[in-house]
Amino acid sequence: MVKWFVEVALAGLAECSHSVISTGTFGWWAAYLAGGDAVYYQNWPRSGSKMEQMTDKADYFLPSWTPLSSQPLSSSLPT
Fold first, then answer.
1. 33-61 tens-digit pLDDT
2. How far is CA 36 from CA 17, 19, 74, in A?
3. Closest by Cα among 41, 32, 24 to 64
4. What is the pLDDT of residues 6-24, one digit of tens each?
5. Shortest CA distance to 30 belongs to which of 17, 49, 43?
6. Which of 36, 40, 45, 72 might form a disulfide with 52, Cβ 3.0–4.6 angstroms?
7. ω before 45 within 30° of 0 (cis)?
């Protein structure tokens, strides 16, 4: 069984040119250190939640990162 160390995983992710991150700090640091394109979940924190009141998204997500919405692209897509 191979044991992975957090610092090795972070170093590997930092070498990537693209990142898809969760709202946790591990993904944030990986995307920040990588310096490439990053995509994050736009609808965090949930609207009206206590976390939303405590969070300034402009301070958390870099302006160059791309928000990903959970809304459908179009209702006219073929089924």
1. 999 999 999 888 888 999 999 989 888 89
2. 5, 7, 28
3. 32
4. 899 999 999 999 999 988 8
5. 17
6. 45
7. yes
- Identify the H or E element spanning 41: strand 37-41
Q: How far is CA 64 from CA 3, 26, 37, 38, 74, in A?
A: 34, 18, 8, 8, 25
Instruction: Looking at the chain, list the stretches that DSSP marks H as alpha helix, in order from N- to C-terminal side.
Output: 6-14, 25-34, 50-54, 57-60
The secondary structure of residue 46, as a DSSP letter, is P
Which has the closest alpha carbon to 17: 33, 5, 29?
33
How far the first Cα of the chain sits from its last, in Å, is 45
